[in-house]
Design the sequence.
């Protein structure tokens, strides 16, 4: 990062300093803020008509009201808006601080977002605007290097239930009787096979996933649900269940594997749960996990992120929607979280994802072929822009007993980049 770019501005508001950090991260070029003089390097002239690429600043970047985002599109000319304020509006999740009608799980839904209403949820507009600005700088300052972000696919998995039929206690026995009475012989056979050998359980797909990851040299992330007070939403095996702890340690010991916490359903309302469950995982793997993803994607900004920071976590992978694919923060690239209420930039990294298996199959009702087309659309998009692509899958989303048989084949085709 030898080259530098300066934002020459009249103020040093935390929002503007934050955007300089984000652009440094996205462009791999050090972006600095200057208020006293125009430095001898490529310059973004932010409200100061001097040398450099001029941007008319919006008061939003000095703590005032937001820009009129409803009039903006991915290709809107920079002469008509301030791209820095538009990028900040997306990354700060300003709209999620405003009053909204939550869905049945208390979430901010895709259908509540401006990007959904304006039909560009499938475009990472914040990155597109940032890259357009960088290319304008390169036109004026040809010595700037071209953007170079190697594409990397990073599979991530939520492990709500490591086994479909084991560690179910008396409920498992009751359901086996129900399977028999209802004539669900295939399910009953799978249940008995799991009881005899846990690796035969239809949700225990970890060895198959390891084989695929090893072949492709991938770096998977697994997020484990470790709720102690289990419910209809938190149906995991007990965190004290020895085979579950054994599985976690096994995956944690594999090369290039990362293990994170999957804070339980009620953790959004009870911050003590996320902290406690993170501590449970810490005791299992011997260190504080670096990352997390909220169960059911129950994310309430800013409270959830503040809790995760207090739990000692450094990154979260919940930035996506359950009801539709797309870019919740208008970005596919990771970015640091900005606490808008406190006007404070943090070092807590947000890793966005564009699609989830349950979204494609259950919320959108897509056929397996349509689901694959959607997945490949986002893959091609990120391949073109460069940088990481995260997907959200479940270890359980391959079971023919539970209606996911075709998804095993399409997920493998996606992993191996076969349309």
Sequence:
């Amino acid at each position: 990062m030898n080259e530098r770019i300066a934002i020459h501005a009249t103020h040093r508001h935390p929002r503007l300093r934050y955007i300089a950090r984000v652009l440094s991260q996205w462009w791999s070029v050090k972006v600095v803020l200057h208020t006293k003089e125009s430095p001898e390097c490529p310059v973004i002239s932010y409200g100061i008509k001097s040398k450099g690429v001029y941007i008319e600043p919006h008061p939003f970047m000095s703590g005032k009201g937001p820009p009129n985002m409803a009039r903006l599109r991915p290709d809107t000319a920079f002469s008509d808006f301030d791209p820095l304020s538009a990028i900040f509006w997306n990354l700060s999740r300003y709209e999620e601080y405003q009053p909204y009608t939550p869905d049945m799980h208390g979430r901010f839904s895709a259908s509540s977002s401006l990007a959904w209403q304006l039909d560009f949820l499938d475009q990472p507009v914040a990155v597109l605007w940032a890259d357009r600005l960088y290319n304008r700088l390169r036109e004026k300052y040809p010595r700037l290097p071209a953007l170079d972000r190697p594409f990397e696919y990073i599979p991530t998995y939520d492990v709500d239930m490591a086994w479909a039929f084991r560690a179910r206690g008396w409920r498992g026995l009751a359901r086996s009787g129900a399977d028999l009475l209802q004539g669900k012989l295939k399910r009953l056979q799978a249940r008995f096979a799991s009881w005899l050998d846990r690796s035969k359980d239809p949700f225990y797909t970890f060895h198959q996933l390891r084989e695929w990851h090893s072949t492709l040299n991938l770096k998977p992330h697994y997020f484990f649900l470790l709720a102690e007070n289990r419910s209809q939403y938190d149906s995991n095996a007990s965190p004290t269940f020895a085979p579950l702890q054994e599985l976690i340690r096994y995956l944690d010991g594999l090369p290039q594997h990362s293990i994170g916490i999957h804070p339980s359903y009620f953790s959004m309302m009870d911050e003590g749960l996320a902290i406690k469950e993170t501590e449970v995982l810490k005791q299992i793997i011997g260190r504080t996990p670096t990352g997390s993803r909220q169960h059911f994607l129950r994310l309430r900004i800013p409270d959830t992120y503040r809790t995760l920071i207090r739990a000692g976590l450094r990154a979260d992978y919940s930035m996506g929607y359950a009801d539709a694919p797309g870019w919740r923060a208008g970005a596919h690239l990771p970015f640091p979280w900005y606490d808008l209420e406190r006007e404070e930039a943090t070092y807590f990294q947000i890793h966005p994802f564009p699609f989830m298996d349950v979204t494609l199959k259950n919320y959108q009702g897509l056929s397996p072929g349509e689901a694959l087309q959607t997945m490949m659309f986002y893959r091609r998009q990120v391949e073109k822009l460069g940088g990481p692509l995260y997907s959200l899958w479940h270890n359980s989303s391959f079971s023919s007993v539970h209606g996911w048989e075709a998804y095993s084949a399409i997920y493998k085709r996606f992993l191996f980049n076969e349309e």
Q: What stands out?
A: The first strand starts at residue 4 and ends at 9. The CA atoms of residues 146 and 329 lie 25 Å apart.
